[in-house]
Write a structure and sequence with these properties.
single chain; mainly alpha; Ferritin; 6 helices; binds MU-OXO-diiron
């Protein structure tokens, strides 16, 4: 059975992941409003991943006799001054989440909660990927500057990101219904 301290920290992390979901969905709406639909799609795929992350902690708590407590989500930023600023925010947000995963790992070690090690190791690996992907696009945005053609080329490139099979955020999953 999971202890109270780690259980509470994981509930906080469910909130962080759901807020991540909300942020990326908000960024998706922002990009669609600029007709940068490839970026809107990329952010929608990212939002999907965040919901999965929240559910991984949710399931871990359920499986280990912890209590899932869904905390209030904060009202987060809903507008950006440029596509570059949005991706820079995404990169910074991923660094914030990496810090939270590190804190969880520290708590798990202090509590000698060995059963959570595989889950937290998975998240540490995942954060390397999340920082790399958002950081790379943020860098590319800086290189693009005011070049609209280059921005459209990147938009086309990001449109190619694939939804995981069965994602409820994939329009193909619900538009036929
Ligand atoms: Fe769940 Fe993007 O960190």
């Amino acid at each position: 059975m999971i202890g109270d301290r780690l259980s509470q920290a994981m509930n906080e992390q469910i909130k962080n992941e759901l807020e991540s979901y909300y942020i990326y969905l908000s960024m998706s709406a922002y990009f669609h409003s600029l007709s940068l639909d490839g970026m809107g799609h990329w952010m929608r795929c990212q939002a999907h991943e965040e919901m999965i992350h929240a559910m991984k902690f949710f399931d871990h708590l359920v499986d280990r006799g912890g209590k899932v407590e869904l905390l209030n989500l904060q009202q987060l930023k809903t507008d950006w001054s440029s596509p570059a600023e949005a991706f820079q925010d995404a990169y910074q947000h991923e660094q914030f989440i990496t810090g939270k995963i590190n804190e969880l790992t520290t708590i798990a070690r202090e509590e000698k909660d060995y059963a959570s090690e595989p889950l937290l190791a998975w998240f540490s690996d995942e954060q390397i990927e999340e920082e790399a992907s958002t950081g790379k696009i943020a860098d590319e945005m800086t290189m693009i500057g005011d070049d609209k053609s280059a921005l459209l080329m990147l938009d086309r490139e990001l449109a190619a990101r694939a939804f995981p099979a069965g994602s409820p955020l994939d329009p193909l999953a619900y538009k036929a219904e």
